[in-house]
Structure formats: structure tokens, C-alpha cells
Amino acid sequence: AQSVAQPEDQVNVAEGNPLTVKCTYSVSGNPYLFWYVQYPNRGLQFLLKYITGDNLVKGSYGFEAEFNKSQTSFHLKKPSALVSDSALYFCAVRGRSGGYQKVTFGIGTKLQVIP
Amino acid sequence: SQTIHQWPATLVQPVGSPLSLECTVEGTSNPNLYWYRQAAGRGLQLLFYSVGIGQISSEVPQNLSASRPQDRQFILSSKKLLLSDSGFYLCAWSARGGNTEAFFGQGTRLTVV
């Protein structure tokens, strides 16, 4: 069975500092990997995804993520955090085996950017 | 462009009453459709998914059911709500293909009293 771990319940970072939100996954074979962001009382918004190719993926709002196959990780990063980045972040994985593959989400990491 | 509509935004229902939440997608055809529940503002639990009209897969046995009467319409229902059905319900769609991201509706905050 596939799974996603987001080991940090909350990440606090000062505005202007770089941020990292961690994600590790377990799946049979090569994964598709996704990051989503959720603001209070709203639906999730897609940020970026890894399909194949370059391990560094760039997405919306200046976010990027690095796929590391050996460490089965897909950490979300941003060089300079904004207060408006404060939100709940979800990592998700989907396997590539034949047939329909559902997406598995992590439990989310709350990012708090401190002014 | 594609859009997803989910309503109502908030709902307060008494225990034992029926439920119907509706979700529609515009601007795409043959989407995969999903219902999720998010408890306590954290993890997402997949409740149902559908890959076509009338095709519903249930992930978790529960007091809820789903239907897909049209290609871009997905309905979440219950005949009798329980207190434990309270939560934040999210509808989502994705294009066919494993590498496609999901697009979420704005959610429905259901409180069962």
C-alpha cells in the first residue's frame, strides 16, 4: 500500500527566510508526486507535481520541490517566505501501476510565517 | 477553462435528517470525480471516487453514498445523518491519467446537531 508521511505538524519560519516542508513517501514503483496548499475554510489548490525528468520541480507562487528517489522524499521549498504563505500544505502520491490508481494524501503541515 | 462548483458552503442539519451535497464541473469531459472528508482541519479521507457515469467506488464503509447521474455531476448523500458525519467535505476532479493533478471545490462545512 502506498503512503505519505509529513513528519512536521507545524513549521515556523521568519518572513524572508527560506522554508522547507518535508514529505516522504512509499509506493510500489515510480511515483507521481504532488503538493497542494489549503487556506482556511477553502479547498485545496494545486502547487506543483513531479512526473519525470528534472528532479527539481518549480510551481506556483515561487515554490519548488526536489524529488529524491534514494531518500523517497519530495520536500517543498521556497527561497524567501512571505506572511501570505501561511497555510496548510499537503503532499500526495500516486503509483504508476496499471489500472486506476488513487491518490494518497499526507496529513498536512501547517506553515506559519512570522512577520 | 475548467471550474468546479460545490454547494452549499455551510450546512447545519439535525441528526437523522437526509443530506444531499452537489458538485458540478464545467469545461471538461469524462473527469474522474472525488468526494473527500477533512476532519479537524487536517488529513483528507477519500470517501468515493468515480471514473464514469454510474460508476462509484467506495473507500470507506459508512453512512454516506454517492451518485454520478451525469458526466460532470457528483452527489454525496445520506438518508440519516449521524453526529459523526460532521466535517468539511470536498469535491474534486481530475483529468484521466495518473499524472494529472486534482482540482478542488471550495468545500462544504457540515455540522450535524
Annotation keywords:
heterodimer; A: 115 residues; mainly beta; six-stranded mixed sheet; four-stranded antiparallel sheet; 12 strands; B: 113 residues; 11 strands; 0% helix
Oligomer: heterodimer
Summing up helix and strand content along with how strands pair, one would put the structural category of chain B as: mainly beta
Number of strands of chain A: 12
Provide the structure class of chain A. mainly beta
Mean pLDDT of chain B: 92
Q: Which ranges of chain A are low-confidence, i.e. pLDDT below 50, for 5 or more consecutive residues?
A: none
Helical stretch tally of chain A: 0
**Could you tell me the radius of gyration of chain B in angstroms?**
13 Å
Strand content of chain A is: over 45%
List the secondary-structure elements of chain A in sequence, H or E: EEEEEEEEEEEE
Mass-distribution shape of chain A = globular
- The helix content of chain A is under 10%
Mean pLDDT of chain A: 93
Give a short account of the largest sheet of chain A: 6 strands, mixed
Largest interface: A-B, 25 and 22 residues
The Cα radius of gyration of chain A reads 14 Å
Put the structure in a nutshell.
The complex is a heterodimer of chains A (115) and B (113). Chain A is built from no helices and 12 strands.
